[in-house]
């Protein structure tokens, strides 16, 4: 599957929640907290290859994800391989997976902690996941995402950019939250 | 934790089940099937570093394990980092984790499939896990194992070798099942 994604800093004068209410009748979204750790490869420089490896802990779930290089210049679209599992001992599982990566020579590249609010927005016969993100240490961002097959990528990209433009979101941010957090540090 | 482990080919004239019955009153053990895949590291030769990385699927559980180099010449004792989780979709989870490893440049080093029968044997104030293993393509083997802290390693090794000797098991096999399967192929 392909994750077609585009991200924008929320303009200071924009009331995003009010806009979603007025335009789409959406009240509150689904809230979750995500604690992410990113890793560097033992023999490939992910800054050069534009890959990412992440362990995400969110409540009782662990998600382990590899992301391939971004596939175009406008969006954050990239290939993804992922497994996710629930566990009453999510914290111990996160530590266990991290210990395996360390033993294999991976190193920690940094952590990102965020509170997300997720909305499902119907747009051009598709369902866009809109995430209103409060990342620790950064101003608010909004991410628009469609997960689809490679063959649907052009249509998904076009839908995301059209929705963004319609919401008054124009300059997309291609840097990852990790990059933005590390630049601020 | 340290996995102190020693393995023996079951002598052709030995009736292991009868011996466990007579000596320890143990009837049948806990049976399970394990399907293991081993991986090579993208930039370290595990044959040289004597490490192992494995995905194990056993019924509804996935276990992801790194094993460090063997720590002595007599046993298969080694450091271990492991996570295990249950899933109704174990097969899809195995495929997902495998796909992440492939994306990171790991390569498959081979598969081992076995049927194990596990017994708990009390010996010298310790509990030894005895596994009677029928590996596809190999003659029967028996593994004796104690998982313990590093500080208890000497006592655990001594208990395992004494139990083995008492059962008439003398020449330990330090090669892994994967190595034995690949040598046969």
Kindly describe this structure.
- Chain A is an alpha+beta fold.
- The first copy, chain A, contains five helices and eight strands.
- The first copy, chain A, has an eight-stranded antiparallel barrel with strand order 1-5-4-3-2-6-7-8.
- In chain A, a hairpin with a 2-residue loop joins β3 (52-58) and β4.
- The two termini of chain A are 33 Å apart.
- The mean pLDDT of chain A is 93.
- Chain A binds chain B through residues 41-44, 51, 53, 62, 64-66, 68, 81-83, 85, 87, 93, 96-97, 99-100, 102-105, and chain B through 41-44, 51, 53, 62, 64-66, 68, 79, 81-83, 85, 87, 93, 96-97, 99-100, 102-105.
List keywords for this structure.
homodimer, 185 residues, alpha+beta, eight-stranded antiparallel β-barrel, 8 strands, 27% helix, globular
Order of helices and strands of chain A: EHEHEEEHEEEHH
Number of strands of chain A: 8
Helix content of chain A: 25-40%
Q: Biggest β-sheet of chain A, characterized?
A: 8 strands, antiparallel, barrel
Low-confidence stretches of chain A: none
Biggest interface found: A-B, 25 and 26 residues
State Rg of chain A: 17 Å
Task: Please state roughly what percent of the residues of chain A sit in beta strands, choosing from under 5%, 5-15%, 15-25%, 25-35%, 35-45% or over 45%.
Answer: 35-45%
Distance between the termini of chain A: 33 Å
Number of helices of chain A: 5
Please state how the strands of the largest beta sheet of chain A are arranged side by side.
1-5-4-3-2-6-7-8
User: What's the overall geometry of chain A?
Assistant: globular
Multimeric status of the protein? homodimer
Give the structural class of chain A.
Answer: alpha+beta
| Average pLDDT reading of chain A | 93
């Amino acid at each position: 599957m392909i994750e077609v994604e585009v991200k924008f800093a929320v303009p200071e004068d924009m009331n995003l929640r009010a806009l979603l209410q007025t335009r789409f009748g959406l009240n509150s979204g689904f809230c979750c907290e995500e604690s992410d750790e990113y890793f560097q490869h033992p023999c490939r420089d992910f800054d050069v290859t534009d890959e990412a490896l992440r362990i995400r802990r969110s409540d009782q779930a662990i998600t382990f994800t590899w992301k391939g290089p971004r596939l175009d210049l406008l969006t954050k679209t990239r290939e993804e391989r992922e497994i996710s599992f629930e566990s009453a001992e999510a914290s111990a599982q996160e530590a266990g997976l991290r210990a395996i990566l360390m033993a294999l020579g991976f190193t920690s590249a940094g952590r990102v902690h965020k509170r997300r609010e997720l909305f499902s927005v119907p747009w051009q016969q598709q369902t866009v996941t809109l995430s209103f993100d409060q990342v620790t240490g950064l101003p608010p961002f909004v991410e628009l995402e469609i997960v689809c097959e490679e063959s649907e990528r052009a249509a998904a990209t076009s839908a995301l950019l059209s929705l963004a433009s319609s919401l008054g979101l124009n300059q997309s941010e291609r840097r990852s939250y990790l990059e933005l957090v590390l630049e601020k540090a």
